Amino acid sequence: MPNAAQYDVIVVGAGNAALCAALSAREQGARVLVLEKASEEERGGNSTFTAGGFRFVHDGLEDLRQDVLVDLSEAEAGQIYIPPLPSDLYMTDLMKVTENLSNEDLAELLIGRSRETVVWMRSKGVRFIPMFGRQSYVVNGKHHFYGGVNIEAVGGGWGLVDFLIKAAERAGIDIRYGTGLRKLLQAQSGEVTGVLAFGPKGYEEITAKAVVLACGGFESNPEMRTRYFGPGWELCRVRGTKHNTGDGIRAALDIGAQAYGGWSTCHAVQWDISAPPFGDRVVLDNFQKHSYPLGIIVNLEGNRFVDEGADFRNHTYAKYGREVMKQPGRAAVQIFDSQTIKMVRDEYRIKQVTKAESDTIEGLARALDIDAEGLQRTVTAYNAACQPGDYNPAILDGKGTKGISPPKSNWALPINEPPYYGFVVTCGITFTFGGLKISTQGEVQDTTDTTIPGLYAAGELVGGIFYQNYLGGAGLMSGSVFGRLSGRSAGLYATQAVTAAAAE
For residue range 252-268, what is the model confidence (pLDDT) as tens digits? Predict the structure, then answer.
């Protein structure tokens, strides 16, 4: 086993952000060690459980084919329409969903470096394809992509992690599994000098010139969820890894790092009610149920409680899980009829799904233990409120309701063609928004807005980007951008320190 003196930079975590940080630090000539709390079989953090989608600035399909979608054939390209995503639209959407709370400096970094970072990842061996199954509808025989997150890593989140792990191994980066952070080490003068870790052989102090924290938020810690989100949050399901328990955040706060960002909010979605407590590495993210804009969502009393068509799914799905948490039994039912069931995403067709089907609304209610009178009343009122117009699920079609609350602002088709289908969901938490304050160089700041020398952060545990809600595809993109940034900064800091020491 290599000894401590062999490393310049320690990266804590082994998901997308961490591996991008490790690769970037290595580019600066740093000797890098990655510490992964999970076993090798459970590596990859939450990144493994994602669809692998990235939101980044581009000028449309032909632009993407130059250096991102290099494997796309002419025939495939002819069946695709991907609208451009300019930086100003990206910023507008991010600020809209975060209620203008996102830190502008961090937002500008995220957006401004998004495309170059995807191209950089491609140079490391990560391959990308269009998200046909989840982010497009076939309109007039052509796949029309919508919502801004249209590109995914081949193999989804699992593929993304595998590509990056292989790149790290090719670069000579060491990875130690089953080894978790317990404490940050500091010199008397305040700079971070390494970590106290706990691994297969017990406690070990590992020294380095710089440390990058990229080991996730606190979504898998029921005590912290309840402390920051309130009563009942110990009962939600966790979409991803069981290992994201806030270790990096707590270690940094213990040495005076500044807490920052949306500590009382999180990314939480509608998740199949029969899903296990933590992510399943076979089913992965297919327990999610995100075709709700095509139907309606009701609680167990049969009442609607959100505007299912308020915006594209990518702009609403990460906050609607929290709305489900507020309902009786922390449960809800998504309802479709024969008009729309054929358009739902593939995740509705897996065998591990909680659903019912009936030729009547009353029969569907009985099958799903919903108040039958309440559901019939809701569906009747909804159908009567649906206004005429051209239905198009690939755009904000404006085909809404009138005279009911909450409204359905787009895609409001009457639910009147049997059979009827219901899918039972609860809340699945993805990641937490609160974390550490960093500089535009990825340096962790203390409570006086002073840089903690030698300490950097990336990924979920960076605060200040997401508040209240989330923009689909921006999470992995943020992890990659700030992983690359913090890794570069840590690598330069460490190698310059080594050079200075040698000169003495």
Answer: 999 999 999 999 999 99
Residues linked to residue 261 through DSSP beta bridges, in sequence order: 434
Decide: residue 123, CB within 10 A, 0-12 exposed, 13-18 middle, 19+ buried.
exposed
> What is the CB neighbour count within 10 angstroms for residue 47?
31
Which tokens is 231 given? Answer: 């009563």
10 Å Cβ neighbour count for 343? 15
Place of tokens 């490391």: 124
Residue 300 near residue 422 (C-beta atoms within 8 A): no
- Which DSSP state fits 239? S
Strand partners, 298: 304, 333
Rounded to 10 deg, the angle between the 313-325 and 87-97 helix axes is 10
Contact between 148 and 136 (Cβ < 8 Å)? no
Other C-beta atoms within 10 Å of 333: how many?
26
Q: How many CB atoms lie within 10 A of CB 287?
A: 27
Element of type H or E holding 408: none
Say how many C-beta atoms besides its own lie within 10 A of residue 42's C-beta.
18
The gap from C-alpha 273 to its chain's centroid, in whole angstroms, comes to 20
306, 297 Cβ separation under 8 angstroms: yes
Q: Which two tokens stand for residue 451?
A: 């840089």
Q: Count of CB atoms within 10 A of residue 189's CB?
A: 7
Cα angle, residue 275 at apex, residues 466 and 98 outer, rounded to 5°: 10
Contact 38, 177 (CB under 8 A): yes
| Joined tokens for residue 280 | 């399943």
Q: pLDDT (tens digit, 9 = 90+) per residue, 428-476?
A: 999 999 999 999 999 999 999 999 999 999 999 999 999 999 999 999 9
Q: Which two tokens stand for residue 164?
A: 């990056």
Q: Which DSSP letter does residue 286 get? A: G
Cut 0.85: pTM above it: yes
What is the DSSP-derived secondary structure letter of residue 469? S
Q: Tokens 């952070």 correspond to what residue?
A: 181
C-alpha 293, offset from chain centre:
20
Enumerate residues 6+ apart whose C-beta is below 8 A from 55.
Answer: 85, 90, 114, 148, 149, 471, 472, 473, 474, 477
**Region 239-255 average pLDDT:** 97
Dihedral angle of Cα 244, 199, 250, 46, to the nearest 10 degrees:
-20
DSSP string of 347-380, one letter each residue: GGGSSS--EEEESSHHHHHHHTT--HHHHHHHHH
